[in-house]
Amino acid sequence: MTLGILVVDDEPDIEDLFRQRFRAELRRGELALHFATSGEEALKSLNTGLQPEAVLVLSDINMPGMSGLDFLRCLRAEAPHVPVIMVTAYGDTENRRRALDIGATELVTKPVDFVALKKLVQSVIVQKTAA
């Protein structure tokens, strides 16, 4: 079974970086990565249907237009069951508190430790699929 992850980030190199770091999982067919460069694009993609469906969202906080926190608020209203891990270069206490208060599952700081992120992604997916 292939599980979908939606990565929302305005940085142009993010897609290549995530595809490289999750290369083994992609090759084995365990994961499918979807990408959006804005909160607006991510909501549109989620509403029109991603295949395979996104069971987890990884979103940057600081993006032009709709911020990651605003995106999280919209997503919580539309799809409260989808876990969201916020990824940010600004892992200060205030951002962490706001993200968790809005409904983020966790907050990860950049530069991303992909070993730790993979473990976190795996634990969130296991919890979601067991529910």
UniProtKB/TrEMBL annotation:
Looking up SMART domains in the UniProt record yields: REC
* Chain ranges of the Response regulatory domain: 4-125
**InterPro entries assigned to the protein according to its UniProt record, in alphabetical order:** Bact_response_regulator, CheY-like_superfamily, Sig_transdc_resp-reg_receiver
Q: Does the keyword Phosphoprotein apply?
A: yes
Entry protein name: Response regulator
Q: Where does the source fall among the domains of life?
A: Bacteria
For this UniProt record, the keywords arranged alphabetically read as follows: Phosphoprotein
List residues, modification 4-aspartylphosphate. Answer: D60
Q: Does the keyword Disulfide bond apply?
A: no
- Name the species this protein comes from: Azospirillum melinis
